[in-house]
Amino acid sequence: MRWLLLKDLQILKRSPLQLTLLVLYPIVIALLVGFAMTRGSEDPTVALYNAMPAGESLGFGGEEVDGNEIRDQLCDRVDCVDADSTAEAKEMVESGEATAAVIVPEDLGEKIRSLASLTPQSPEIQIIVNGSDAVENRVTDDRIESMLGEANLLLAKRLSEGAKQYLDLILKGGQFDLLGQQIEVLGLQKSEQILKKIEPKLPPGTDKEQLQRAVRFAHLATDNLDLAGPLLTAITEPIKADKVEVGDQAPSLDTFAIGVTVAFALMFVTVLLVAGSLALEKEENAFTRLTAGLVSRIQILVGKVGLGTVVGFAVSLILMVGLGLFVGIEWGRTPYWLLALIFGAAAFSAAGAALGAAAREVRAATLAAVMICLPVALLSLVPDDAVGPAIETAINLVSALFPFRPALDAITGGLEISGPNVWLPLLHLAILTTAYSLLARLALRRF
Amino acid sequence: MDPQETKLALAARAVTKAFDGRQALDGIDFEVAAGEVVALIGPNGAGKTTLLSILAGISEPDSGEVSGDGVAWVPQQAALYRRLSVRENLLLFAHLQHDAGQTDEAPEAMVDRMLELTGLADRADDRVGTLSGGNQQRVNIAIGLMAGPSVLLLDEPSVGLDPAQRERLWGFVLSLVGEGTAVAFSTHDIQEAERYAERIVVVAEGDGLFSGTADELRQAVEAGGGPSGDLETSFLAFLRERGH
Questions:
Q1: What DSSP letter does each residue of A182-223 carry, written as one string?
Q2: CB-CB: which of A4, A15, A288 is closest to B58?
Q3: Residues A22-72: pLDDT tens digits?
Q4: What is the ipTM of this complex?
Q5: A293 and chain B: CB distance < 8 Å anywhere?
Q6: In the beta sheet, which residues pair with residue B153?
Q7: SS3 content of chain B, % helix, strand, coil (to 5)
Q8: In A, which residues are within 8 Å of B96 by CB distance?
């Protein structure tokens, strides 16, 4: 059997394009994915025209909100570029220099301050977007909505603080600034105390009873307004999320990205190589000669699965080491992910052998390999919660019948201790290797 | 050569084979003596390739018996790896034959012998895919001969070859016959059968209809009132007489 394996490696060596692809493919993929993973996402550029007078404070109710604080909130999730006018901001969007523009009107501060008055006005800012790129628009919309949410939350908190100060003034009394004049406010607590002092001095009669009612009201109002402060704080952020994770911990996004990249490379290289190599035996008429007393069909099958396992393992190992240069890989877990690569390569090889034996032609085998591998692998990546129960069951069934998902689980589990249990997917891959080898052997009967 | 007087190298008795309900061989007898060259002729679908593959042990008959040792089979199309060189192809099959116990000879020695025999020593390092059809067929036959078989089965060996290539190929095959190898080959070229075979076996619809020399076939047709002339005319008349 070693002669068959050597022969296949010799043939592989004789195809410069195939050999180049096998060597360059993992290197290029590792570089691309590695750069993509380490570079991080870029914030969209947003033009900002702030027409508010410089240094204007948005104070209300004793609380101060600096205009720069609002700007920082707006620009926290986008890359802000200052514009000098609405027209310039619009031009920047039209030219593509910015994906959107935010126009802060001159009267924004005034309108925000009016929120704490008896005649509140709704503050508005203008958003200008370029409608030519649907995907970028969606991203920008999400970012702008998010930044407006942050800014609104900041204002709500400040408003709440202002309202609380008014309530304190009503409750405890103090100085109140109205149009530059300081006004003394008595407050409910002091009013209650004064009334309580007066009440015993009054003779029994109707007025004393009325005064007692006023004292009770002041007491009740004092007690209940104490609760208004926490209530106002709660209104600014009514629902707080308390995230509790249950079940198996998911692997980190980096580990998952490495797993997906390596599993895809392993799948394509191995399935295509073995399917094509087995079909080539038929196309070159060598299969009949080989099986005419020289080697058994099982030996040919084992040779092909061995070829795929060796080459697939080598390619995925190069890819893994390449990715390791960009992303931190837990090298202490190397034995686990090495096992995952070997078992994965064997399972994909067996699947490739079954395809090659069934197709019997190199082109048909290659086409079938791509047409089956790609959709099944993509289906395996669909999150369980993204579809209904019936579709989820169907997807899980299809995914379980093909080595991609168990290979992905084995690789991510091998890379990270918090990933999926590595032994179960390895067992799954071993079962699939056996099952696909049996299918391939059956298909070789009519090869 | 009278096979009755010489030792049989290969014999098949009452062999049947059906594919999907179609009877490819219907109780056919066939034999070839040591050092004899036998041509199998017949129309398309007559069962020639099926008979040769059963004689080679590649497929099993539904019924009947086949006896013979040291049988080598050379398929109609070159069964070679086109991306490997002549030497690499020969060496691969030499190793496989050696490991399968078909020969005790060292693989490298077998390869050198075959390169010498085929006259392809100067093309040993050329990739098979770059060789002419005739040279590919020589390598194809050389692989069949490496283990020193006593019977060589050739399935339409000269298909696609020009006359010069065909002549070189037969020169090579007949040199083996001179060393005692029995050869049975199928062909659609009646002239080739007459020129190189000592005996002709006519097969049609899985039946063996005739076994004898080319002259005996002609005489049989003439005796039945058929036309006289070349072997192809006699062969066609023979088939028509029997409803084929």
A1: EEEE--HHHHHHHHHHHGGGSPSSHHHHHHHHHHHHHHHHHH
A2: A288
A3: 778 878 887 887 777 766 556 778 888 888 877 676 655 555 666 676 677
A4: 0.80
A5: yes
A6: B73, B184
A7: 40, 25, 35
A8: 3-4, 290, 294-295
